[in-house]
Specification:
Layout: H1 3-33, H2 35-52, H3 54-57, H4 89-124, H5 126-140, H6 144-155, H7 159-186, H8 189-196, H9 201-238, H10 249-256, H11 265-292, H12 294-300
Helix pairs in contact: 2-4, 2-11, 4-5, 4-7, 4-9, 4-11, 5-7, 6-7, 7-9, 9-10, 9-11, 10-11, 11-12
Length: 301
């Protein structure tokens, strides 16, 4: 290998490294200039830290009952007061936030995997398209909250069944988003060229179609996270979600509705955490959409 070749290789690697650094710096600048994304990220990270540090932050267990201290107002000992069983509301809200985030993450992950598989193979195979899309249409014909209530009533009120029910109602939307993007990509000229060269269907789907569907799918996942938290809270409030005495933001609200005028803290604080979680993920989703697709941001301006 001569000196010129070595020098050319060194220059090439240095240029590529410089380009990577510039791209990373540009991405950081775009992230910091996107107020929605920054605010949403701060809210999400804060809630995740609260959920992870629940055993450290809470001085009481969420199940500890002290009937002599029932319905006490917020104080230094009980930051969010106590409920109608004398349990520390702060501890229950913190652990309930952990449950809500776990449900949101699980539902987003399961619905993403199932929806992506359904959308990809529906876009590529007509027979599967007719079968799977009709099933999705049938699921979307029912109001999501009613279908989730029916599924949890049939399966039972626990966290696993709530995750399964919310995943089922979230899959059709993901499948349709992936299918619509995949069908556009499938009609591109380079896909036809790959077919003519004898490329297998699996290679075309996973190496050339999947990368093009990731951006809209990731954006959809952030909104699914927010809606899952909201629907789980609604199910628990209605008695079809996380069963007491396990803490959930929804069943804390349910316990507080009968004493809303005399013990306002039992509804205000869990409601505030639900609001922050939904707001944070919606802001993050809007900001992420602007970051991944600047054209939508320009169009809105």
């Amino acid at each position: 290998m001569d000196t010129k070749t070595v020098l050319d290789g060194t220059v090439f690697h240095e240029a590529r490294r410089t380009l990577q650094i510039e791209r990373r710096a540009l991405l950081i600048r775009r992230f910091l200039s996107n107020r929605l994304l920054v605010i949403g990220s701060i809210i999400i990270v804060s809630l995740c830290l609260i959920a992870l540090l629940a055993p450290v932050l809470s001085s009481h267990t969420p199940y500890e009952m002290k009937t002599a201290e029932r319905l006490q107002a917020p104080s230094a000992e009980h930051l969010f007061g106590t409920d109608n069983f004398g349990r520390d509301v702060f501890s229950r809200v913190v652990y309930g936030t952990r449950v809500s985030l776990f449900v949101g993450f699980s539902v987003s992950l399961l619905s993403m995997i199932a929806g992506a598989l359904i959308g990809l193979y529906s876009s590529y195979y007509k027979l599967l398209d007719h079968i799977l899309m009709r099933i999705c249409d049938g699921l979307m014909a029912f109001p999501g909250i009613l279908l989730a209530m029916a599924l949890t009533a049939a399966l039972g009120s626990n966290i696993i069944n709530v995750i399964i029910a919310l995943s089922i109602i979230s899959i059709p939307a993901k499948a349709r988003v992936v299918r619509s993007v995949a069908m556009v990509v499938k009609e591109q000229g380079y896909i036809e060229a790959l077919k003519s060269q004898g490329a297998s269907s699996l290679r075309i789907i996973w190496r050339h179609i999947v990368p093009n569907t990731l951006s809209p799918l990731i954006i959809q996942i952030t909104f699914t996270f927010a809606s899952s938290i909201l629907v789980e809270a609604a199910l628990s409030f209605l008695g079809a979600g996380i069963a007491p005495p396990n803490p959930s933001l929804g069943n804390i609200l349910y316990d507080g509705k009968v004493v809303i005028f005399s013990a306002w803290w039992m509804t205000i604080f869990p409601g505030l955490f639900i609001l922050l979680a939904v707001l944070g993920y919606n802001l993050f989703g809007d900001g992420l959409r602007d970051l991944l697709d600047p054209h939508t941001n320009k169009a809105r301006k």
